[in-house]
């Protein structure tokens, strides 16, 4: 596809653009501005060399003040949205998004001899619906003084030809589109470009008014004059770098948003495909957190085909930029052999880098490597050192492992008081192994006063939270503690168990 700058003679405040190759006309009520038309191929380019037009080959979107996007029949019938998306994605760079807010229109060529409305043609509807899934920002970009937003959204509604059908089918469809797609995506993009609250409200209200009243011929713009000062419309644009803003928007799409802002609820649906698109934009600019997030998306297969090699490539980019999450995730791939050959030594390298930045999972993982002697010489003292770092950050399994080491005197002086301390921290987080260890501490009175009720309590919790593989052994410890108690004492402890479970269960 090609974009052309056309200096067009103004006629009564309107620019007349020839539809190519259909020969139709497209009028836009603008004056004193530079227009760009997206057209296809050399044949169309030669048709623009009339005395009315001066034609220059496209050098960049920012050369223009207004863009008209021409959907070509060939692309529509082949269901090829690639060329159109090549232009639309350029609009999502922040400077372009600010400049072309309400400064784009769409037209469709090749159907001039077709008596049907565009929104009645099945292949046009299918093309627009596919495009809408990739680029749902029409309400933000499309001009209100053109017809593009109208016929394009008609393609998203059920086909209705009579006035009765339009009232019955279109009104609910318009409301569904506004609430489920139009306004949420407008909100997301306004956040990205740093709109002022006033401008975001105006854009939203104007889009709603257009979609509801334009079909009835009753649309009145929210504000006829567009502000000329970009800084007034987008005062928060410079608060974050463009890459950071893209990362934030990608993250927003990945998790979704549903929060109350005063009397209104702001809702942006979770969308993995849009998350991947925005995260890639930020990642391509070298944003480390986005590179790591894109690696996760490829590893899981959210919004993209699952590809561990791609995941490893993006994790590596993030890791080499010093992103601790990327370093840990790359280390994890080396540990398990996902997308890269298994290499414990490389896993240790990346776990150490992430651990030095305080990433608790990496600290724990490096402790495991030292404990097992994988990729590094076996060293229980080093294992304890890294387990302690993770434990102090609240890592439950590291706390449990540190308790084990104190209990056995492995890599540390044997110390049952310290063992009980770390078992309790992990047990309070629901770690079944630590609950079992704490039950043993109380049963035998190691470092604490012997207490069969406490032993029974923690053994019951260990059994309830454990995997089938170890339940038999845990059950024997529970039964041994139960045998030391009277029926009344057991009942009292079992009530405590129920209360503990209720307090620690999240819905």
Protein architecture, described:
The structure is a single chain. The strands form three sheets. Strands 5-1-4-6-7 form a five-stranded mixed beta sheet. The radius of gyration is 32 Å and the shape is elongated. It has 24 helices and nine strands. 58% of the residues lie in helices and 9% in strands. The protein has 507 residues and is α/β, with parallel strands linked by helices. A hairpin with a 6-residue loop joins strand 2 and strand 3.
SSE layout and pairings?
Elements (H helix, E strand, L loop, with lengths): L1 E5 L8 E4 L6 E4 L6 E5 L1 H6 L8 E3 L8 E7 H5 L4 H10 L2 H6 L4 E6 L12 H13 L3 H4 L6 H7 L8 H31 L3 H17 L16 H4 L8 H14 L1 E5 L2 E5 L3 H13 L3 H13 L7 H13 L3 H13 L7 H13 L3 H13 L7 H13 L3 H13 L7 H13 L3 H13 L7 H14 L2 H15 L4 H17 L4
Parallel strand pairs: 4-6, 6-7
Antiparallel strand pairs: 1-4, 1-5, 2-3, 8-9
Helix pairs in contact: 8-9, 8-11, 11-12, 12-13, 13-14, 14-15, 15-16, 16-17, 17-18, 18-19, 19-20, 20-21, 21-22, 21-23, 22-23, 22-24
What would you say about this model in short?
The protein has helices spanning 41-46, 73-77, 82-91, 94-99, 122-134, 138-141, 148-154, 163-193, 197-213, 230-233, 242-255, 272-284, 288-300, 308-320, 324-336, 344-356, 360-372, 380-392, 396-408, 416-428, 432-444, 452-465, 468-482, 487-503; strands at residues 2-6, 15-18, 25-28, 35-39, 55-57, 66-72, 104-109, 257-261, 264-268. The chain is an alpha/beta fold and 507 residues long.
């Amino acid at each position: 596809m090609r974009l052309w700058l056309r200096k067009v003679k103004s006629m009564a405040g309107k620019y007349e653009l020839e539809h190519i190759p259909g020969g139709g006309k497209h009028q836009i009520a603008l004056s004193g501005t530079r227009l760009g038309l997206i057209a296809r191929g050399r044949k169309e380019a030669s048709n623009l060399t009339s005395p009315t037009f001066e034609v220059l080959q496209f050098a960049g979107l920012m050369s223009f003040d207004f863009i008209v996007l021409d959907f070509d029949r060939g692309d529509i019938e082949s269901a090829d949205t690639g060329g159109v998306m090549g232009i639309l994605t350029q609009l999502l760079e922040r400077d372009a998004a600010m400049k072309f807010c309400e400064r784009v229109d769409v037209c469709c060529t090749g159907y001039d001899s077709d008596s049907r409305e565009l929104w009645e043609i099945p292949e046009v509807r299918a093309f627009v619906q596919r495009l809408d899934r990739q680029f749902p920002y029409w309400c933000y970009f499309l001009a209100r003084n053109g017809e593009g937003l109208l016929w394009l959204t008609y393609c998203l509604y059920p086909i209705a030809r009579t006035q009765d059908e339009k009232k019955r089918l279109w009104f609910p469809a318009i409301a569904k589109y506004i609430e489920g797609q139009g306004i949420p995506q407008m909100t997301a993009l306004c956040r990205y470009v740093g709109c002022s609250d006033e401008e975001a409200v105006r854009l939203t209200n104007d889009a709603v008014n257009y979609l509801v009243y334009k079909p009835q011929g009753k649309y009145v713009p929210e504000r006829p004059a567009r502000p000329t000062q970009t800084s007034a419309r987008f005062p928060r644009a410079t608060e974050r770098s463009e890459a950071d803003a893209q990362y934030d928007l990608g993250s927003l799409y990945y998790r979704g948003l549903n929060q109350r802002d005063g009397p209104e609820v702001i809702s942006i649906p979770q969308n993995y495909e849009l998350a991947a698109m925005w995260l890639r934009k930020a990642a391509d600019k070298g944003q480390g957190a986005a590179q790591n997030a894109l690696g996760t998306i490829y590893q899981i297969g959210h919004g993209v085909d699952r590809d561990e090699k791609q995941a490893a490539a993006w994790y590596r980019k993030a890791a080499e930029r010093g992103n601790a999450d990327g370093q840990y995730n790359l280390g994890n791939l080396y540990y398990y052999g996902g997308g890269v050959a298994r290499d414990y030594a490389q896993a240790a390298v990346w776990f150490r880098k992430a651990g030095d930045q305080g990433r608790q999972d990496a600290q724990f993982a490096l402790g495991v490597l030292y404990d097992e002697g994988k990729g590094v010489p076996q060293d229980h003292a080093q294992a304890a050192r890294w387990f302690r770092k993770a434990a102090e950050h609240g890592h439950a399994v590291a706390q449990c492992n540190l308790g084990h080491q104190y209990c056995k005197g492995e890599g540390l002086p044997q110390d049952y008081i310290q063992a009980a301390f770390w078992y309790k921290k992990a047990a309070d987080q629901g770690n079944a192994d630590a609950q079992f260890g704490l039950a043993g501490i109380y049963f035998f009175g190691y470092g604490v006063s012997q207490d069969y009720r406490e032993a029974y309590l923690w053994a019951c919790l260990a059994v309830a939270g454990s995997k089938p593989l170890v339940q038999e052994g845990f059950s024997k410890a529970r039964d041994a503690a139960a045998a030391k108690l009277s029926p009344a004492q057991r009942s009292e402890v079992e009530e405590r168990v129920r209360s503990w479970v209720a307090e620690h269960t999240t819905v």
